[in-house]
Write a structure and sequence with these properties.
Oligomer: single chain
Strand content: under 5%
Low-confidence stretches: none
GO molecular function: DNA binding; sigma factor activity
InterPro entries: RNA_pol_sigma-70-like, RNA_pol_sigma-70_dom, RNA_pol_sigma70_r2, RNA_pol_sigma70_r4_t2, RNA_pol_sigma_r2, RNA_pol_sigma_r3/r4-like, WH-like_DNA-bd_sf
Mean pLDDT: 85
Distance between the termini: 51 Å
Shape: elongated
Protein name: RNA polymerase sigma-70 factor (ECF subfamily)
Number of helices: 10
Radius of gyration: 19 Å
Order of helices and strands: HHHHHHHHHH
Keywords: DNA-binding, Sigma factor, Transcription, Transcription regulation
Number of strands: 0
Family: Belongs to the sigma-70 factor family. ECF subfamily.
Structural class: mainly alpha
Largest sheet: none
């Protein structure tokens, strides 16, 4: 971790250069095509507050927290109205039961692995972008960027149980959206549309 003592401008430049690929990757999963703008907003805000960063080891978490807020701001600005989710339909859905019932890959011993093998990185990102930000954000930050649930709760300023509930519902909704995306894009073999 580089937070140089050679001056704040140089230290920030080195930190930004080091963290930029991770921030862009995270932002692409959170806001899709607006990722570069979100990262630019994040770096501008981080530069303005760089003197507040006391511990260089905390820099990734600090930058992630700023980026998450920038992405949330973009989501709020772009949302015309909140997406309504039928929580009961999410809870009842099971991707594994659906795969076994529909049997999209006849004669296979590993149905769920065959199903998952059909998805590439772009498909996963497309499915993520279908999720409301409320559920997409915890999935990306915790499962894809490796932060702890506790760290995300601190970033968002919400109780730990709230993040855990959003993760649970987010996983279920992601599974459901994967199935629907696979049906729509023809990733399933042998399942009538």
């Amino acid at each position: 971790m580089v937070v140089a003592q050679a001056g704040p401008d140089r230290g920030f430049r080195e930190l930004a250069k080091e963290q930029l690929p991770r921030l862009l990757s995270l932002a692409r999963r959170l806001v899709g095509d607006d990722a570069e703008d979100a990262v630019q907003d994040c770096l501008l805000k981080a530069f303005q507050r760089f003197d507040q960063l006391q511990d260089g080891a905390a820099a990734p978490s600090w930058l992630t927290s700023i980026l998450v807020n920038c992405c949330r701001d973009r989501g709020r600005a772009g949302a015309r109205r909140p997406v309504e989710i039928d929580v009961e339909s999410i809870e009842d859905f099971s991707l594994y039961r659906r795969i076994a019932h529909e049997d999209p890959f006849p004669y296979s011993d590993s149905l769920h692995l065959d199903f998952l093998a059909e998805f590439g990185p772009e498909d996963v990102r497309a499915v993520l972008m279908r999720l409301p930000e409320l559920y997409r954000l915890p999935l990306v930050v915790v499962y894809m960027d490796g932060f702890l649930v506790r760290e995300l709760a601190e970033m968002l300023g919400v109780p730990l149980g709230t993040v855990l509930a959003r993760l649970h519902r987010g996983r279920k909704l992601f599974e459901k959206q994967m199935w629907e995306y696979a049906e729509e894009t023809g990733l399933l073999r042998g399942v009538p549309r």
